[in-house]
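Thread: Newbie trying to understand structure tokens

Hi all, I'm a second-year student working on a class project, and my supervisor (Dr. K.) asked me to get a predicted structure for one chain before our next meeting. I've only ever worked with sequences, so writing a 3D structure as a token string is new to me. If someone could post the tokens and maybe explain what I'm looking at, I'd be very grateful. Here's the chain:
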Amino acid sequence: MPTTVLFTCAGRRVDIVTAFREAGATTFAVDIDPLAPTLRAADRCALVPRVEEKAYVPALASLVAEHDIGLIAPLADLDHRTLAARRAELGALVLLPDLEVVERTVDKYAAHCFFVEHGIASPGTWLPGELPDELPFPVLVKPREGYGARNLFRANDRSELDFFLRYTPVSALVQALCGGAEFSIDVFCDLEGRCLNAVPRTMIESAGGESIKGKTIRDPELIEVGRHVAETLRLRGPATIQCFRTAPGRHELTDVNPRFGGAFPLPHAAGARFPELALALAEGERPEPRVGDFTEGVAMTRFLSEFCFADVREPCASPSSTR
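---
Reply by user tm_fold:
Sure, no problem. This is what the structure looks like when written as tokens:
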């Protein structure tokens, strides 16, 4: 019997839902928005409360029990803390690392400190109240917690830095601007924290913090960076690691997101087989690592698509309704 996978905060990630169905899963998408495209793409769907509401986890647990769901895969950062902290209440395998690891990746300053403590290169990063007298301008003002390139500002001198620190509406940090080429590495780890695969890709073009053009590359140094970082952090499931090659042999990490990346179609097309690995974990298997097993030179360019329909109330009218 196929594993049923529940995708939370599913939004627009039709690419991931479709890939899991093609891998043999029954797909179940949930969102708060009846117009979320994944609700039209999944085999089943439901509307659920907002993540911050008390009813959110009970609603998911009810769906897990009612539909014999075996795997929960969050597709956005919004509910990572909640799912990691309350996984025991959900009744299915949650494709996230331990709460401590989730907290460390959500808090970008905590992640930087962890990297430095473990000998992993990371650009200079400071809290606003701890800035050194001499800063290597230009610098970035970044959200301490955030995603999607929101509230990200470049400061070319101290005057601009002071302005953006006053202007930003969120808790911020200051980070040295990295030179060199930027790369992302899509990784997938098992429940023991072993890296099963690592697929580096170039960042040719992005929009809103999401890659829209890129290409897989077979770079042994980047593959090893991905494996080492994933296993040092003790990730579980998918993650995207972002870094810059600032000098030969030096890769400075700027972000780790423990979820399927925005450019998921690229490693998927290159044969990373992340959905198959996730389903194997849900079925109690222990896949052997296949780090570096992918096709290099696969390029991606993204475009808009759509669903058109007459009744916006469908397909999900209540938290327990299905298509």
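A couple of things are worth pointing out once you decode it. The first strand starts at residue 4 and ends at 8. The chain has ten helices and 16 strands. Feel free to ask follow-ups in this thread.
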